[in-house]
Each structure stands twice: as C-alpha cells, then as structure tokens.
Amino acid sequence: MTALVRYHCSVLLLSQRYLAPVLLFVSLIVVLTSSDSGPLAATYSSCAGAMLLCSTWLTMTLAGLEDRTHRSVVVVGAGGSLKVLVALVCTALLSCLPLTGVGVALPLLIGKHDPVAADLLLGALAQLICALTGVAVGLVCSRPVFRRQGYGLVLALALLFTVTLAKGLPPVNLLFTDLLDGKESADLLGATIVPLTAALMALVVGTAVTQVVIARKD
Predict the structure, then answer these.
(1) Does pTM surpass 0.70?
(2) Peptide bond preceding 171: is omega within 30 degrees of 0, i.e. cis?
(3) Which residue intervals of 16-67 are DSSP H helices?
C-alpha cells in the first residue's frame, strides 16, 4: 500500500496538475479572509469551503492521470483494483494535509485575530470534514467512473452545490451553519462530531460506488 501511495504521489507531482487546485485554494483564502477581524469560526468556514473545492478537483485530477492501459498494468501489479483505489484515496487525503496547515495559518497572517487552541482545532476539523467530503465527490465523478469527463464535471458541480446549499444537510451545510452561528470555537467543537461522521460515511460510500463501477468496467 505504501508503495502505491508513493507511486500516486510521484505521478501527481511530476504531472504538476496539482498546481491549479492548490492555487485556487490559496487564492480563495486570500480573497475571502484578507483583513478579516471577525470570529475565527466564521473565517474558517471560508477556508473549509475552499478545501471542499480543492479536494474535489485534486481527487478528480489524481484519478484521471493515467490512461486505461497504464492503469490496468498498475492494477495487475498491485493485485487488484481495490488496493489501487484505496491508495488513491490515501494519496488525496495526504495531499490535503499541508493545505489544511495553510488554511489554518494563512487567515491568521493576513487577518486580525487573537486565536486560542480551540480556534485552531476547529479550523483543522472543518477543513478535514470538507476534505473527506471533497474526496468522496471527486471519486464518484472521476475519469475511471465517467469516461467523458464533461459528465463527471457536471455531476461534481451538482453534488457540491447540493452538499453546500441543502439546508441542514450533513456534513457540509450543517458544518457551515454551525460555524456561522456566532458561537465561540470551544462551544462548537462538539458539534463537529456529526459532520465528521457523515463525511467519513460519505467517503466510504463514494469509495464503494467507485470500486463497483470500476470492477464492472474492468
């Protein structure tokens, strides 16, 4: 598994196709949080939204780097498509870790805040929830599932709008509602349990659906 993760990381880095989603992530944070002096919980909701977009795009990019022939060779060498898919998920999540650090620290550098430990933990959890959700969306809309990526892109946008705007829907809309409620970060940490659980379930379901489609196509 470790070798597969290393392989996916090297392919992603060499392709440099990670640059576009990463630049989008940083740009959104700068635009949305520059000179902000409001509650950090609300500020981190903007960072979490940027992470949702970035992780979706990054996952779709990562899953679509190889053509079908090359991917078949990797699957045979790995001993099955499920191992390759799980390694891809791990790679996507690992790629989001340094971005989470950026998303927590950058608003503090370009805004006017006096953070406490609860603020930083809440910001990291919010981005983790959105990263898990974004990876799930990216998987089911990726090239191995949709040969014509235009269809995958339309579905990705529809899913992102749904999870963001559907009132009270966990994990994303529920998370954003809590973060924008005006409460202190320490009071909101317990409320992240439901969105985090929902995001983990979404990732498991997204991985399972993707694997079923891939297995049928292979």
Answers:
(1) yes
(2) yes
(3) 19-33, 40-63
SS3 content of the chain, % helix, strand, coil (to 5): 80, 0, 20
Rounded to whole angstroms, how far apart are CA atoms 91 and 79?
A: 18
pLDDT digits (tens, 9 = 90+) for 116-139: 999 999 999 999 999 999 999 999
70 burial (CB, 10 Å; 0-12 / 13-18 / 19+) is: exposed
Q: Rounded to whole angstroms, what are the CA distances from 48 to 28, 133, 174, 181, 185?
A: 10, 11, 12, 15, 15
> Are 157 and 167 a contacting pair, CB within 8 Å?
no
The span from the CA of 43 to the CA of 37, in Å, is 9
